[in-house]
Automatic annotation (TrEMBL):
The gene is ychF. Pfam families: MMR_HSR1 (PF01926), YchF-GTPase_C (PF06071). ATP binds at N11, V12, G13, K14, S15, T16. This is Ribosome-binding ATPase YchF. Keywords: ATP-binding, Magnesium, Metal-binding, Nucleotide-binding. SUPFAM superfamilies: P-loop containing nucleoside triphosphate hydrolases (SSF52540), TGS-like (SSF81271). ATPase that binds to both the 70S ribosome and the 50S ribosomal subunit in a nucleotide-independent manner. Residues 2-284 form the OBG-type G domain. NCBIfam families: redox-regulated ATPase YchF. One of its GO terms (cellular component) is cytoplasm. It comes from Candidatus Sungbacteria bacterium RIFCSPLOWO2_01_FULL_47_10.
Amino acid sequence: MLAIGIVGLPNVGKSTLFRALTKKQVEIANYPFVTIEPNVGIVEVPDGRVDRLAELSRSKKKIHAVVEFVDIAGLVKGAAQGEGLGNKFLSHIKEVDAIAEVIRIFEDPNVIHTQNRVNPEEDLKVIELELVLKDLETATKRFEGIDKLIRGGDKIAPLQKELLSRLKLGLEKEEPANTVLEREQKEFLDKKEIAVFLNELSLLTAKKKIFVFNGSEKQVAEHWQSSGPLKNAVADAERILLSATVEDELNLLAPEERKEYLKTLGLEESGLDRLIKTAYKTLNLMTFLTTGEDETRAWTIPVGSTAPRAGRAIHSDFEEKFIRAEVIPCDKLIEAGSYAKARELGWLRTEGKEYIVKDGDIIEFKI
Ligand SMILES: Nc1nc2c(ncn2[C@@H]2O[C@H](COP(=O)(O)OP(=O)(O)O)[C@@H](O)[C@H]2O)c(=O)[nH]1
Ligand SMILES: [Mg+2]
């Protein structure tokens, strides 16, 4: 399963956010492949289509798509040199697919700030620098052993050396790996050996990122308006504004009260729901659905998957023995009101191996 790591300096609200997330934790029994650890939370991706389809099919069970969040402790100034939890931090963060970077905006005299004052721009710089330094360490270590591999006749090592030296050059200038990679020639990066090697290096500054600004709506808005550096640093990355404490409180309310409360805050959706959806999108994932009396279920697949690849999410047989699939977009089935009606209207399509699945397709596999 794909995982998002929550990182940030101490006392910025990571654990509060994580606690709020885990209150939404799914019934683990439905996800047999999941192992639970104290700093891991598995949460449903909010998706109204699942509820509507379950109603239409009178399903006994409803199973949403999920994403995994990991509360990663140990990032402090100097973490790259082993300060704080140092290496433990590194091994945890390397395993995640994307990073949610929590930045403290809220002011609260009772919550100590590690740099003694609330300064999001500075915090951001500290975090980015630590991540860059970790990557520099990773790249340097690999670089040091590479000549030996080349001498030993390793065919791929010279290419790896080239990549590592370009990465090192950039990282030494405090450029994140993704900036270096963006500049690289596509032909170079597209080489299969390079892609595999890069993946295996799992550089922190090459991971997808979501910024989470933690504070009241007002505080965040004020800060955002007045801060050019903050805007620059975030650039095109996804960003979520929320208050971790409010999110935690929201979980205590009944669904109706929650809606009311959100309304008074001028919000349609909780910050957590926005975060979960954004995470799903950032990981380049999408959903297809299956529905019937037994269950209605959302399945997670990479954007651009073919029908057989989608089948793999259910069972490897569905990919290997794929013959064809019967497909209807979710909104079309809901509009028709039933499978029988949809069939009568000719809205069910038969698709073959090459079909590229779209988000919200309902698929029945024929094997
Ligand atoms: N006023 C205020 N306090 C918060 C907010 N988010 C977290 N806190 C408090 O800040 C303290 C540190 O939060 P925690 O989640 O443990 O931070 P972590 O070190 O990043 O995991 C706790 O006392 C939280 O209650 C917020 O949005 N507003
Ligand atoms: Mg914490």
